[in-house]
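Subgroup meeting minutes
Present: P.N., E.W., G.H.
Scribe: E.W.

1. P.N. recapped why we're keeping a running log of single-chain structure predictions: easier to compare across weeks, and new members can see raw inputs and outputs side by side.
2. G.H. added today's entry (379 aa).
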Amino acid sequence: MAHAYVPGLKVLARTIIKKERKLPIEGEVLVEKGGLVKARDVVARAFLPGPVDIINAANKIGIDPKELSLFLLKKEGDRVTEGEVIVKYSSFFGLFRQEIKSNLTGFVESISFATGQIILRRDPTPVEVLAFVDGIIEEVIPKAGVIVKTYGTYIQGIFGVGKEKIGRLRVISKSNNDELSDVSLLQDVQEGDIIVGGSYVTKEFVNAAINKGVIGIIVGGIDAETLKDILGYEIGVAVTGTEEIPITFIITEGFGKIDMAQRTFELLSKANGRVVSISGATQIRAGVIRPEVIIPFLEEIESIQDIQEESFSTALEVGKFVRVIREPYFGRIAVITELIEEPYNIPTESRVRVAKIRMLDTNEEIIFPRANIEIIEEE
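Output recorded in log:
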């Protein structure tokens, strides 16, 4: 049985998109407000301090800590490489020799002649934040990061796993209900591509895609068991998006075999061959985070600075597009034709507020609980 989780998904052909790009610790912002950036440009950088190695040098060679200075080959602040001798001791006219070598590549952080300890620190690890999308720097957050603004297609999914990826979009399904099961579909796919399927993707196809070097899959549905096999554990309800896997998944409809919404498939098809940015980060609980697909179309506008954002109402209104999130119509797209004000008796014998909706694929009109439909933001 298929399941969905969050309401109010956005599926927009053209819109303003803003992305906050922040470092995990204080660092340096490398761009200026108003500057143009490409998706792979580094906009901020910081350095995480490396781990330390504490060496009880005086104790190791059996001397008084105050004598340590006589045998040091390095001083505080000096560079060291792994395996390099930093202390050389000899006694009885050279008959007894001892050496202490560095276990890391880094520098000498401190030397204590009171304790006889030498502290070495590994080189810091650089942490870089990419712009993620082509656009303009709308705001600089001092010592932290930036807000990048772009214009283009924006699609949110139901569920995702995997880190941010930037690659070429390849639509390899002919329709929104095609399965990704035939590995021959990968024949023309290149390493670093992000592929688009229809209703479903099999475990065998995923494995073949990984071997081909595919970095992302956008598809309507997937089995939870397939995700479990790829991750090595059962997915929970915590935040996703940090998984150490070679491929990022954007699931647009839910778990199981579910046709990708026609509108979503059409937008992705029109962007075939373009550079796309995807993120599998998902949070189902409070503070909802949704997986997303961003496809910039900056060439269509004269100046991104002059474009104004449009507000979006989450209130149910006649004429709004919705997705049904409960069986027996799960995943289907409809339009609201009437909002019935009085509570209505449903088959469970409960009295709930309902809406009359018309299925876009069959034109069938049904009465359905308002709590079981979600708004789809479109132009």
